[in-house]
Amino acid sequence: MKISIKKGKALAGMREAGRVAAEVLRVCRGAVAPGVTTADIDDLCLKTAHAMGAESSTLGYCGFPGSLCVSVNDEVIHGIPGPRVIRLGDIVSLDVTVNIGGYHGDNAVTIAVGEIPDETRDLLEVTRRALAAGIAAAGPGRHLSDVSAAVEKVARDGRCGVVREFVGHGIGRSMHEEPQVPNFGRPGRGPILEEGMTICIEPMLTRGSSKVKVLEDGWTVVTRDGLPAAHFEHTVLITAGGAEILTPRAD
Ligand code: MF3
Ligand code: CO
Ligand code: CO
Question: What number does the ligand 1 atom closest to the CA of 166 have?
Fold first, then answer.
């Protein structure tokens, strides 16, 4: 297993990609409101990325038709932007990946549109905390699965399902690099993290069963029981002192 180490120019490139990915996500989330279509968010995403000198990493990736993924309510990830109208009471997951100067930055957030039930708000909060716990568990000399176990613990303590079919990943000159970063597993296994590695930690949690399926569009991943799902993601750099978020946001 070969995990790329970023230093010098590559590290500067990753920092820039992370900064831009976070800014594009910030702009997109500001546009989420009742009456807006997911295609409107897609247009804004592409325009914002282009204005910053970046390309969407997802547009055309394995044929994916969106410049970001927009997943609503029971949609977990990989929702295709389109005519769907966002309504009050929805939860909306936005997953923005951009490429600038040959480096990728990837981040996601789930937001509530107006009032949502307490148990759904709790799902969002647990998923956000699971990501934070994963990041806190990352650092040089730590096993990769320490991150996975930390995410899983928060999810389980919060009584949320952990999606197993999709995982986080290394990132760099490609959107998806080694290693895979599962959101479950026993600690003390797998590769040892080293300074200069960049990974995406991205818990995908569910309110009910963790079972998912892919819709007929070939992309959209939904919960089988129709209950809501949440997704938070950061691109992080392993540093001497731990892990630094390359896609910071105020939330
Ligand atoms: N951004 C997603 C991730 O976190 C990947 C999207 S792949 C796409 O890994 F094909 F759906 F765009
Ligand atoms: Co992503
Ligand atoms: Co990712």
Answer: 9
Q: Which helix (H) or strand (E) holds 234?
A: strand 234-239
pTM reported for the whole predicted model: 0.98
- Does the pLDDT value for residue 32 go beyond 70? yes
Ligand 1 atom nearest to CA at 169: 9
Q: Residue 9 pLDDT > 80, yes or no?
A: yes
Can you spell out the DSSP letters for 110-141? EEE-S---HHHHHHHHHHHHHHHHHHHT--TT
Nearest CA to ligand 1 atom 6: 58
Both tokens of residue 234? 């950061």
The answer to whether residue 1 scores a pLDDT higher than 70 is: no
Domains of the chain: 8-245 (3.90.230.10)
Share of the chain above pLDDT 90, in %: 98
Cα separation, 98 vs 188, in Å, equals: 32
C-alpha distance from residue 176 to each of 58, 235, 251 (Å): 11, 11, 25
What confidence tens digit (pLDDT) does each residue in 129-150 have? 999 999 999 999 999 999 999 9
69, 96, 171, 214: residue to mutate for ligand 1 pocket, most atoms within 8 A of CB:
69
